[in-house]
Amino acid sequence: MSSNGADLTFGYTSCFVAILLFGSNFVPLKKFDTGDGMFLQWVLCAAIWLVALVVNLILHCPKFWPFAMLGGCIWATGNIAVVPIIKTIGLGLGILIWGSFNALTGWASSRFGWFGLDAEEVSNPLLNYIGAGLSVVSAFIFLFIKSEIPNNTCSVDTTPLITEHVINKTQHPCSWVDKLSTVHHRIVGCSLAVISGVLYGSTFVPIIYIKDHSKRNESIYAGASQYDLDYVFAHFSGIFLTSTVYFLAYCIAMKSSPKLYPEAVLPGFLSGVLWAIATCCWFIANHSLSAVVSFPIITAGPGFIAAMWGVFMFKEIKGLQNYLLMILAFCIILTGALCTAFSKI
Q: What is the pLDDT of residues 66-80, one digit of tens each?
């Protein structure tokens, strides 16, 4: 197998692993009370940073570029809305919506050279455009899929996945999400999912910017590494730093009485580890395939995995109409992913 063929195989394999983990990383949290999500965000980001530390040591501590931390800041800002999204429109639909807008933003910034990036070329631009366009179409279909989330309850579900009758008896005050009406649930959840998706789609921009400008002798980034994984530690450090700042601001706003949920610590840590591994695979896919190819594939795929959890495990999505819409959306996503993949060949 040629070097290029090996890169493509490695890249698509990394995409598959990333899709599987991104679609499942919030599952450990689904059965635990997470409140307003601020404490959970910090726990999850602490786990992410620890994974980055291990990866950095394995890579023998490549040069640290502070600008790469900006991508982590952007991601952490978008991730604040995850718990409210899950509580309002559900795990499956939430990931489906933010994944679609994530795909569009990440693809467009790389394809057209937004934010000072070099526009990326592919072997078959038409297929690439079709693939990205189908991701947009699928996003609109997902908006019509209705999920059923229990109302007037302070937690998503307090029955853990791995046990049958272990319920934490500590009662926590309801968060602002629990006070919303059914109509507002959907409006707020979908809006936050769109905003998060746009922020998620911008998270790799600083790294790609550094790589692009490393080829210019006059740039301060001249000679920077072209291997995406070398930027993981800086990127994840930005995530942890930003989440810590947000959590401290939250503690101040709560007058040093933040809502802490001890039962969510271990599930949150596991969720963070799964997300970090998936993102490392995404970095590898970006290097092997380029972001203009990896983005539409990796961001659209997790929706299928998440929706399957939502249908079979959590019973969030029900009804023949919803199922038919899901099947249609998945067919569009699959077609779009294949078009994007073949555009590189």
A: 999 999 999 999 888
